[in-house]
Amino acid sequence: MIIALLMLVLGAASCTREDDTPVGDIRLAFTLHYDGAPIVFNQNCDYNGEFIRMTTFTYFISNIKLWSGSGAVNLKDIEMIDFSKSNVSDQGALEGFVLTIPGVRAGTYDALEFGVGVPKDMNATIPADYPSNNPLSDNGYYWAPWNSYFFSKMEGKFDALSTGTFESGFMFHTGLDENYKVVRFNNPIVINAGNGANVLHVSLDLSKLFVLNGKPINLHEINKAHWPMNKDVIIAITNNYTAAFKLDN
Amino acid sequence: MINRGDLEHISYDPHATEYKRPPFYPKMEYPADNPPTLEGIALGRRLFYDPILSGDSTMGCFSCHRQELAFTDGGATSVGIDGINGRRSSMTLVDIGFNYKGMFWDGRAATLEEQALGPVTDPVELHTTWPEVEMKLRRHNAYPQLFRKAFGIRDRKEITKELVAKAIAQFERTIVSSGQAKFDKFRLNQDFLDYDEAIGLDMFFDRQPFVLPDAQCGHCHNDPIFTTNDYFNNGISPANSANQFVDGGKGEVTKDTNDIGLFRTPTLRNIMLTAPYMHDGHMKTIEEVVDHYVSGGHPSGKRDPLITQINLSQEQKMQIVAFLKTLTDPGILSDTTLSNPFK
Hints:
heterodimer; A: alpha+beta; five-stranded mixed β-sheet
């Protein structure tokens, strides 16, 4: 009986902050789709009237915050969303890349906000500054000629020769301070106390992301964005975040 | 009555140390249960160069990882004690301690400690058994004391393959670039690059995008270690489906068909010393390698999207090679702490 009571007390204590405010964890589920159809890596997916096969889709997400009338609650400084770890099956693509943030004060919030990319202060650092468990430690995500991290990498294949072998590749990389974008969803968000109680679905729609001058990017004409001469593509993609990201709750 | 081990009379006073690194390198990490000590590194160095690890006492780690060849063996594929060729080329060990994305070409070992266990029992490498090696080490006139000093074992019976692997891993983590490569001296304002080397550098990292073509090397061979240690299909095989690959690479480990044909990107440091090239060693010269990447490799649905045709002239290809030559590190070749202690 005493043990049972003790467990009850401990269990309750685990769902409160030190100031006795109830807390819950948040599962941020990031999904990737093309006009509603989940994108599974290395499988045919629709794109602008043809098929593509996605092989890499990553982006840094930073300064994740929940806003309420009393100000912002910082949830996480930096994380990499890597769909190669989730979108490898139909089910995985539906569930998406899940980021769990524990210990968030329960209550009602007005908005979810995050930056897409690496904020200026962090972008002034280099991978060697970080231990290997930090997403900013990966030297594959730093491009010295830009003095910048890659904010996102989007790579895949398309069937330029219509042979069914998808021998042609596309590669869109973004970076540089001026292309850091903040996305904010002004939706009421209720965070309940407890674990597993709060799931926020953040989707990214490729049909709204790969758009240049109001039209889908034609991969047969534009299939690379990495260099200064492609900066219009990089700028267009990063300007499309606001339209392409959606909070589905 | 307490049974005393036969080594307890020997003092155990290990000296903690840190792995050295050039000033522009990240801090090296290591498993919490295998921190570096002077005694552990010395033991690992001795084991690395001792043929006691092989079935016929003729070969050891050193056979496929020779210091004068930047710890490769110069062969297309490696040959074990029975004269049988393996199917892959020996990978350099330089800067291997900074790799946290899996060992071997296919990533089948997560750590250096795990990696060191493999070649001893591989029939095409050292071809013995761990019980046999453990027995030889326990009976040896020097090793029991050295294991005591490195790991504090109380009795020679406590010499295990795991401790052997830990010691070798500690030594391998000391095989770190010295910072004396010409490019590193250039970076540290201690030397100049000549014209061709400088142009090669600019193309390698696309430092002058409006003036020079991007040779696109830096995506996978990024500074400072000149590898991201990621896994790619770099277009050397025309295979279009998983069952067409002679060697499945990472896919053989993960059993994921999408990983078939992917191999870990090796560092380009000391690349002029590590010929022949690619996981199967089929490219004999660095010029052949550059020609391959400029061509875009074999068109294939499995080829990575980053591998595409590159417009480089003959002169520009020569300049890329000139830059690659600046990555040869004389310091690591002459470092006596990395050499064979039996000589």
